[in-house]
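Good morning,

Attaching, inline, the backbone tokens for the sequence recovery test we're adding to the shared suite. The designed sequence is right after.
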């Protein structure tokens, strides 16, 4: 085959590819989105926007929890336990078991809630 024959085959192949791709371009032209549909689709499928929505949900859930008291704590304190018999609690000077609840000063819970909502 000569160079002219190869060139002719290449040109015919390129023209054939153009003719085959024409109907596909026409189908794409019919399926174009208008601007409002494109914006709606971008807002629904954008991963950054979805992440921000999830963060907003977390922040609003924390804001709802802000005005409540903290969890109570169980305290177990040993004082003056002799090292020779650490399991003998009756010889210890001051052992205590108790439950404690942190109570904030008046108005702090409402202030904490306002800050969390902002």
């Amino acid at each position: 085959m000569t160079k002219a024959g190869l060139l002719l085959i290449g040109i015919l192949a390129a023209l054939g590819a153009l003719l085959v791709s024409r109907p596909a371009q026409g189908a794409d032209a019919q399926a174009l989105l208008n601007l409002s549909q494109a914006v709606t689709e971008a807002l629904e499928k954008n991963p950054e926007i979805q992440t921000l929505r999830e963060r907003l949900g977390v922040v609003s859930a924390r804001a709802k929890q802000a005005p409540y008291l903290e969890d109570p704590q169980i305290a177990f304190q040993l004082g003056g336990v002799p090292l020779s018999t650490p399991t003998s609690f009756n010889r210890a000077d001051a052992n205590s078991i108790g439950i404690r609840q942190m109570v904030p000063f008046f108005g702090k819970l409402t202030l904490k809630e306002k800050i969390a909502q902002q």
